[in-house]
Amino acid sequence: MRVSEKIIEGLLWLSAVITILITIGIIWVLLSESIAFFSEVSIVRFLTEKEWTPLFADKKFGIMPLVAGTLLTTFIAIAVALPLGLTIAIYLNEYAHARFKQVIKPMLEVLATIPTVVYGFFALTVVTPFLQGFIPGLAGFNALSAGIVMGIMIIPMISSLSEDAISAVPRSLREAAYGMGSTRLQTAFGVMVPAASSGIVVSVILGISRAVGETMIVAIAAGQQPRLTLNPLVPIETITTYIVQVSLGDVPHGSLEYRTIFAAGITLFIFTFALNNISFWIKKKYQEKYD
Amino acid sequence: MTNSEKNRLKDKAFQVFGVFCTFIGLIVLAVFLFDIAIEGFSRIDWDFLTSLPSRRASRAGILTAWVGTLWILVLTAIIAFPLGVSAGIYLEEYSKKNRWTNFLEINISNLAGVPSIIYGLLGLEIFVRQMRLGGSLLAGALTLSLLILPIIIVTTREAIKAVPRSIRDGSFALGASKWQTVWNQVLPASFGGILTGIILSLSRAVGEAAPLIVIGALAYVPFTPDSPLDEFTVLPIQIFNWTSRPQAEFLTNAAGAIIVLLAITFLLNGIAVYLRNRQQRKVKW
In terms of CA atoms, which chain B residue is nearest residue A206? Predict the structure, then answer.
């Protein structure tokens, strides 16, 4: 009896340890291929060259155009998702009836369940033609519509995490604000949002991390032309799109071109890893404790 | 206008703005679903569901894509279910509160934040190259299993946590061992919640295209797979491929395939919500 109990516990332990092996695997795979890459292309070239053309005859290996594309689409997405998501969180918490909230929340969650390739289709075939109606210079592939659609996808993430943060603020604070004669708006922005600010910041950071790693929307709608620009109207390329682009082609295993996707991958991984850990740190350090 | 009147006006204005923001997402969603339905429904017929892919848009179908998606769904479930649930049980019932457990927990939250395409790179190197599985269904399912493992672990833990202490104490008092308690009491009591989490994570896996493209799943597969070692394609990759082509006929095909993909996703989510509601009604501790 005791022996079989121990064996079962050992098996359960093993499944938990697999999660650590996954992390080690990710880091090992990214590092080993990137080290091989950086032995041929210096890290200085990687960080300072202003063009990214590893698939052309005249090869340039500057990651900056891909980083610029990634940051541009991410910025647009957050510029859409933060005001909308935060307003929704405040509205549902401070204004809406409980019944309304109960109906609306699951409907908003639907936005998060739609596969991203479907959002990509939407950005390319609906949003871009719509925007071209009043932005004449807008190219068929562009950062703007990809970013906007990505923002719509992230709304439920920001709204529900912010809402959790706001509803964790104790009732007494809200009642105290009302007692001083504040309107709902003054209560929301004067008391509730500041009290929940760490949770709101965490929701935004997680939203950024999500947007940085998003692949299919940008691969479909933002183009495949790495360029160092902040112009949202022209085709660009993100880190994730580049990895997809190479994966679709026929690049031989072990070649320098093959290794570029791991160099791009490790750049992406560092970004998201840093963002996620900042969010844990904020959550741990700044979360207000009310009793 | 007095100050308090001004403030009241601002308050009302924000209320209107709040309603506007809440509905804008839903309106966009509605416009989008409507657009897809208009474009795609006419394309869906028996031939579309049972035809192989083709260079000619009007003859191309999604047979290989939806069969591939079902294969991936089943294989991923078979691989991820035991792993994720066991890890969840270990963390919730067995592990002691120490640094090691804390490290495991932080690691799992970190994995949940790793972009899916990075899992693709992991799968490409480990499953496709080192284990020599090639761009097969098995390699794809293993990759997606790792991707959804953190979600399954977290939801399993939440479901197990909801089982009250007294159930365990009662079982121990009757002389049951730790595992007997977990197997006979805790798991049956939390199974609804665990199942909900697994179905939700599978609905995520079904919609993923990026990691599968990276491991080398192809857009054009001229046959339906017969074994886990066959090459494959899935609906999201087929949609991506058709969306990337310039001809309008292929966009119509993509819209048709999207309707099928959304039907699968919404069905899975619907089942999950149904199970969760039933669980909440049934269980009164």
Answer: B113
